[in-house]
Amino acid sequence: MGDLGTAAIIIALALTAYSATASFAGVRGRHVALVVSGQRAGYLTTLALGVATLALMVAFLDNDFSIRYVAQHSGLSMPRIYTWVAFYAGNEGSLLFVAFALSGMATLSMAMAPRKLGAQRPYANGVLMLILGFFVTVMLLLANPFETLATPPADGEGINPLLTHPGMFFHPPLIMVGLIAISVPFALGIGGLLSGRIDDDWVDLGRVWGIVAWALLAVGLLLGAWWAYTILGWGGYWAWDPVENAAFMPWLGLTAFIHSIMVQKRRGMFRMWNIALINISFALGAFGIFINRGGPVPSVHSFGASTLGWVFLLFLAIVILGSFGLFFYRIAVLRSTRALESSLSRESAFLVNNLLLLGIAFVTLWGVVFPLISQLTTGRTITVGEPFYNQVNGPLILATIFLMGIGPLLPWRTATWRSVRHAILVPGAITLAITALVGILWAREPVVLIAVGVSTLVAISVLQEWGRGTVARHRATNAAYPVAFLQLFASNRPRYGGYVVHLAIVMLAFGIVGSSFYNLERDVFLTMGESTDIGKYTVEFTSVDTTTYPDRTERVANLRVTQDDAFVDTLGAWHGVYPSFNMVSTRAGIRSTPVEDLYVIFSELQPDGRTAAFRLLLNPLVWWMWLAGPFVVLGTVVALWPSRQQAAAYVPSAAADGPLASGGVS
Amino acid sequence: MTILLITLLAATVCAVVAYPFFRRSPMARLDDPADELAQSLRRARDRVYEEIRALQQEYFLKTLSEKEYREQLQAARLAAADLIRRQREVQETVAAVAQRVEDELRKAEASGTDATIAEAPGEQST
Amino acid sequence: MWHGVALALAAAFFGAFLAPDGLRAQDYTELPPELEARAQHLYVNIMCPICDGQTIQQSHAPIAADMRSIIRERLLANETDQEIVNLMVESYGEGVLASPPKRGFALTVWIIPPLVLLLGAGVVFLVIRGLLRGARASARPELTQMPSERELEPYLSMVDEEISGGTEPARGSGGG
User: Fold this and answer.
1) Does A143 map to a domain?
2) Cα(C94)–Cα(C115) distance, rounded to whole angstroms?
3) Residues contacting A592, CB < 8 A, separation 6+
């Protein structure tokens, strides 16, 4: 298996080299057969890397400990199902995983590329193959998953206990695939610059893959937050840790990109911005990969061995120099031929949107690298932690949410103050009323009120449009309201799918504000039978169940939750000790309602077996954050759903008494 | 066994990659400039139509005032009309060139001299 | 990658088992609500000195528990937040602050982001102005090179026909 795997990787490398060369040479020399051959070589990389992936999987399933990677990340007692996780658990395997994923997405995107892309496609393919070639080369020369051991051990080291949680089946792969998926819109953009074709045909495909990468990262980040909440056990879900930030920053760039590209699609403007945005997003993605594997910044996630760091730093440098060099070389052709008609228009709103999102990304980047800078300049390492990000990013995020609310209300091209006032009157009034109500009943902090205000504005303006649109369609077509609602969505899927995602962001904001400002936390010691209060709940420590396995000891502390003497729930807080890893892992007992989470961590059992240390938390509104996940997915699916070719007329003929019916506008 | 699989993979790869060079049938051209231009104008026109659709929807939903709608619709209609005009121009020019080439060829044949144009007129325009 | 996660967290958790007599029993002092809120706020702002990038609120290590305990004692002794923070910095060094102090070199952390944002806002402002100027210079730039309406008359009816659904435009991918 090891030989097959290594051979497959070598073949893959040869294919990427050939494919890139043939694509570039073929398109420049107008040699069609060469271009086609190069494209096919690109498709074949998926086959070769697929074979390598299979080889590694088989090695795991066969418990082939002669392969070092298998010995390091699995063991005889590891349940089969964890083979999937073990695959990407370590450096070498995750490189193969990323390479295979990139190869698959390159194949899919190039096959999907419509004929109208013409010369742009081979250039894009060439860029994708260069990126893939980089990863495969690193794998082959520095981190081969199929490296063998001279004397195979009898048993492997086993799988990390932290990885045996369902969240870990999805969070790392989603983040990794999401980051590498940015390669596709990036390659399309660069392909356009290289081919000199700066018209807008790549926009459709670029938008689709931009959204795909965005959605993968969004779900991956949410899953990571959920995993941190339920497993790492400090009651929080996001710590502005450099590795988390490494995935967050490209996601911000992609958010700006997928919004800004709408303007290019609709008005043919912002070409420069869009190329710059995708360049920045990909560079941030490459930076993220560097952070994950280089370990120059202290983090809970950071690598032990950081020998690969310089390679990814070099890659990052080449990406930045190459992509922006090309950008400035072609800048004359990218300049907008269309003009902006009003500073108050949706186009301007998108520009401000770009500014805010890039601003948040910059602040995050600044926070990540500053400890390094301070180390290099003053010798002291200054920590940049959560309070910094909260204070600096907080206002920017609130401003972005505000823009999310008023942006869709602004018309394209031009808006007068009167029309804006008219559009914002009803949502604005309702928002102020609700915010005032919240302020009177519950909250006093200004930040909370602002957050409530902007989130409510978004929700109300979205729901208002949904309502109006449904009613209008109902009147025009006499369809039942639910049908009219669905028809509304079908009439413009990108727009309404986007609205669903905006609502998901509002839910996220809701949950974050609730759990950040109104949470309660206590660390207590309880003996069996003793109880304690948190908020309006009383928690009693009733018993401990212990189960011993060959590689670990698991304990579950049973807790009885009551409220005003009425029984509410029993919770089980889980605690595991892994002697071979010298490690303790915990899983919180959580009672989750839309109002609040009661959250108990079983920290430690005392030697007497009857007293235990617990951490109790009351986190309001966290439930809403997890609800945002499915809504993000739903909104993405709706936005990406292909629409049938429709007649250009939007309004059903029954109601077409607008300007067109009267024979034209004079 | 492993050697067999590796050889199989390598052979498949080489075959698929080399095949395009040996195909007898003519393959599609990469980029025919005249065709390209006509197609690109068509696509630009489709984009204008999409914008008109969106304008109609926004007017329908009352996010656009009547005056703004009429103004922007007029601008879009004119833009689309101009694109049709330009597309027609391109097609006419290409047809005219093809016609001209054919005429020259016929003249050359009629006067008995060797045709100096190597390619048949049919390949000039698609 | 995730091997590293396990290693780092192992260091943090394992620490809990190093102390020979475990955690002290029954020494958790309860605080009244307003002090509890201050305590929570302080926990988030102080880093655990030996854990990689964790605050004492996040960390389960005994040293973090000790520090939290000290904070609680001091709060009950009516010390101000700043005095407690100073104590922490004296005992454990400046790196124990979760966010940089607003003086000295560390001030650059706080100054740079607003400066960069102002710069960015300036760029956006200039971009908008430049694009607007393009519009004002020629009232409708797309029309300046376009022929007059009369010349386009014959084509307009074709456009209207296509818009009203007479002819379906050929569309590629993507929705509207």
Assistant:
1) yes
2) 26
3) A622, A623
Which DSSP string corresponds to A337-375?
SS----SSSHHHHHHHHHHHHHHHHHHHHHHHHHHHHHH
Contacts with A108 from chain C: Cβ below 8 Å: none
Structure tokens at A450: 């602002």
3-state secondary structure at position A580 = helix
SS3 (DSSP) at A269: coil
Give the dihedral of Cα atoms A227, A229, A231, A232; nearest 10 deg.
110
| Domains of chain C listed by start with CATH number | 13-102 (1.10.8.640)
Using the Cβ of A411 and the Cβ atoms of chain C, whether some distance falls under 8 Å is answered with no
**Chain A (552-611) residues lying within 8 Å, Cβ to Cβ, of chain B:** none
Q: Based on the domain organization, do A352 and A417 belong to the same domain?
A: no
- Taking contacts as CB-CB distances below 8 angstroms, the residues of chain B near A200 are 47
Q: Is C51 left (phi over 0), alpha (psi -120 to 50) or beta?
A: beta
B58 CB contacts (<8 Å, ≥6 apart)? A411, A412, B64, B69
Owner of token pair 């602002």: A450
Final residue belonging to a domain, choices A491, A517, A543: A517
Number of structural domains in chain A = 4
What does the alpha-carbon distance between residue A64 and residue A70 come to, in Å, rounded to a whole number? 7
Q: Are residues A47 and A90 in the same domain?
A: yes
Q: Residues of B with CB below 8 A from C162's CB?
A: 49, 80
Task: Point out which residues pair with A546 in neighbouring strands.
Answer: A555
Pair A510, A620: CB distance under 8 Å: no
A466-522 pLDDT, tens digit per residue, is 998 898 888 888 888 899 899 888 888 999 999 999 999 999 999 999 988 888 888
Chains that touch A (3 or more CB pairs under 8 A): B, C
Residues pairing with A559 in the sheet: A541, A571
Do residue A215 and residue A272 come from a single domain? yes
Question: A490 and A591: one domain?
Answer: no
Q: Are both A536 and A606 inside the same structural domain? A: yes
Structure tokens at A486: 């669905």
CA distance between the termini of chain A: 76
Instruction: Kindly report, residue by residue over C113-132, the tens digit of the pLDDT.
Output: 999 999 999 998 888 888 77
Tell me what ipTM this predicted complex has.
0.80
Q: Do C8 and A370 touch (CB under 8 A)?
A: no
**How far is Cα A595 from Cα A620, in angstroms, rounded to an integer?**
6
Q: Considering only residues 11 to 70 of chain A, which have any Cβ-Cβ distance to chain C shorter than 8 Å?
A: none
CB spacing of A525 vs C25 below 8 angstroms? yes
Q: Does the beta-carbon distance from A584 to C14 stay under 8 Å?
A: yes
Specify whether A160 is located in the same domain as A195. no
A600-631 pLDDT tens trace: 988 888 888 888 888 888 999 999 999 999 99
From chain B, the residues in CB contact with C147 under 8 A are 82, 85
Interface contact A376, partner C, CB < 8 A: no
Number of Cβ within a 10 Å radius of residue C101: 15
Q: How far is CA B4 from CA A6, A67, C6, in A?
A: 14, 21, 40
Please identify which residue in the block is written with the tokens 């002291």: A380
Same domain, A447 and A324: no
**How does residue A442 score in pLDDT terms, banded at 50, 70 and 90?**
confident
**Packing angle of the helix pair A271-294, A167-181 (nearest 10 deg):** 130
Residue A664 lies in a domain: no
Query: Given CB atoms, is A32 within the 8 Å cutoff of chain B?
Result: yes
> Which domain covers residue A91, as residue numbers?
1-164
Which of A10, A28, A32, A496 has the highest number of chain B CBs within 10 A, making it the mutation to test binding with B?
A: A32
Q: What is the largest CA-CA distance in chain B?
A: 76
Alpha-carbon distance of A236 to A228, in angstroms, equals: 7
Residue A512 lies inside a defined structural domain of this protein? yes
